[in-house]
Write a structure and sequence with these properties.
By secondary structure, the chain is an alpha/beta fold. 42% of the residues lie in helices and 13% in strands. The protein has a domain of 150 residues: Rossmann fold (3-Layer(aba) Sandwich).
Length: 482
């Protein structure tokens, strides 16, 4: 069993630069979010035409207006602040800017909220956060002194654990708290049960614990109960009804959360009738089930579903799905070059395609969909469709696909960073970065439920079930790049 104490040699200064708040915020232009006291538990269509001086945007109750503002990016808010003439509207916009600009710093956020309230004492948005006394208490909340991470640092999952570790350390050093906090790691790749390793962490003086990483270990640890210090598991259990044990929280890259937001994003875009294409495995079945349930709750219908595996002949399955007779189509193509007439061959009972597929599979499927006359039908997906590493030549086949991803991955792509062997390319790297913020700001998520932490993995809030909910960023593929 490997025990490690944090050393500067773990990471070089080149990996310590935090994604700028503005860069991260620009990725949250649209998309649903969730709050502990949910201000936007239901998807909202946000029309920015005429914003901020369009009266229709502001004609709603407090939580609805705030919900809509959560879908406006920081650059757009800054521009709107210059345009806003009405004092009430100006107050809304300035509060939204505070929420996003200072989201990762409790002290600055609480200071700015107190200052905003002083300038806007009668504004309705004062109801979105507690009194100044509570804010001051939050500002003075003591950070954990000794954080222990339970991660697989060796073995088959060693690279995954190392990616989390490196992301955590990068945020730790960038925070400036390295002289005030001790961080240590316990390797979970061994014969000792997770409960014993957790007990070891407590025996070594941990007043905060992050991990474990695997679902099985998270479920075993959750059964332990009696958590005396804040503990954030980096996976989600499925054995609990209601709330998790006190002081036990869950955080990770849940594909089910992405599936829910996929349904909401398509609904926001005005679509109603979907075709689903997904892998024929346990993951595909589970994500599709969640997608269908949420799509139906939003008034959407599923026209058809195609499950595929490694033996599926996509050249046959895709035209069959679209009700295109390949032989008849070839004959008509020889005799008729009218694309509109040819397009009418395929079925017309859907207006959106949900594609749950790896990059390798999607690069085959998307061109076939376009070839068989579905090129005008929007395609939506989750982060599963993008590797996270820029590959414009191969990903040009995915042009036009709208998908979700972590702001960290999208920022790296936009900055031109690459390297599949770089642990920063792993989507678990930003999980580590956000885990550091969350363990230091868990009290803030409870007290300021309407103010997300805009992190490297998404906009983070705490649900009543003590799970960290992650609102994803949305992007469309152009020229083989997000």
């Amino acid at each position: 069993m490997l025990r490690q104490i944090l050393l500067i040699s773990f990471i070089t200064l080149s990996t310590l630069v935090l994604t700028s708040c503005e860069t991260t915020q620009s990725l949250f232009n649209q998309g649903p979010s969730s709050q502990s006291t949910p201000v936007d538990a239901h998807p909202t269509v946000v029309n920015l035409q005429g914003f901020p001086n369009d009266p229709a945007f502001w004609q709603a109750d407090t939580t609805t207006v705030w919900n809509k503002l959560q879908h406006v990016s920081l650059p757009e808010l800054n521009n709107a602040a210059i345009q806003a003439a009405d004092p009430n509207i100006s107050g809304w916009i300035k509060l939204a800017i505070v929420s996003k600009q200072y989201s990762t710093n409790d002290a600055q956020l609480t200071q700015q909220l107190i200052a905003w309230r002083l300038a806007n004492p009668s504004h309705p948005a004062n109801s979105l956060f507690p009194d100044n006394s509570t804010l001051t208490q939050l500002q003075n909340t003591k950070r954990p002194q000794h954080i222990v991470l339970l991660l697989p640092l060796t073995g088959n999952l060693g690279s995954a654990g190392q990616a989390v570790r490196n992301g955590f350390i990068s945020a730790y050093y960038a925070s400036g708290n390295k002289n005030q906090q001790t961080v240590s790691f316990i390797d979970t790749n061994g014969s000792q049960p997770i409960d014993a390793l957790y007990g070891q962490a407590l025996a070594e003086g941990a007043d905060a614990v992050i991990g474990p990483l695997t679902k099985q270990n998270a479920q075993e640890l959750a059964k332990r109960g009696g958590f005396s210090v804040p503990t954030i598991a980096l996976n989600y259990t499925d054995i609990w009804f209601g709330s998790l044990p006190t002081n036990f929280y869950e955080f990770g890259l849940s594909p089910l959360d992405e599936a829910k937001q996929l349904a909401e994003k398509a609904s926001q875009s005005g679509h109603k009738r979907a075709i689903i294409i997904a892998p024929q495995d346990e993951w595909g079945q589970r994500v599709t089930k969640t997608l269908i349930a949420n799509w139906g709750a939003l008034g959407g219908t599923v026209t058809d579903t195609l499950y595929f595996n490694s033996h599926t002949d996509l050249n046959q399955s895709i035209p069959q799905l679209l009700h295109v007779d390949v032989s008849a189509d070839r004959k008509q193509m020889k005799n008729n070059n009218d694309k509109n007439a040819l397009e009418n061959q395929r079925r017309q009972d859907f207006d959106v395609i949900f594609l749950l597929a790896s990059p390798q599979s999607a690069r085959q499927i998307v061109p076939l969909l376009k070839y068989y006359y579905a090129d005008k039908i929007p395609i939506f997906s989750t982060s599963v469709i993008y590797s996270g590493t820029p590959s414009p030549q191969r990903d040009s086949d995915l042009n036009g696909v709208t998908f979700s991803d972590t702001p960290w991955s999208l920022s790296r792509t936009n900055s031109g960073e690459s390297g599949e062997d770089d642990l920063r390319a792993s989507r678990l790297y930003p999980v580590g970065r956000d885990a550091y913020m969350l363990i230091n700001q868990i009290s803030r998520l409870k007290i300021l439920a309407n103010f997300p932490i805009y992190g490297a993995t998404g906009a983070l809030t705490l649900t009543p079930q003590q799970q960290i909910y992650r609102r994803v960023a949305w992007v469309q593929m152009h020229n083989g790049r997000p």
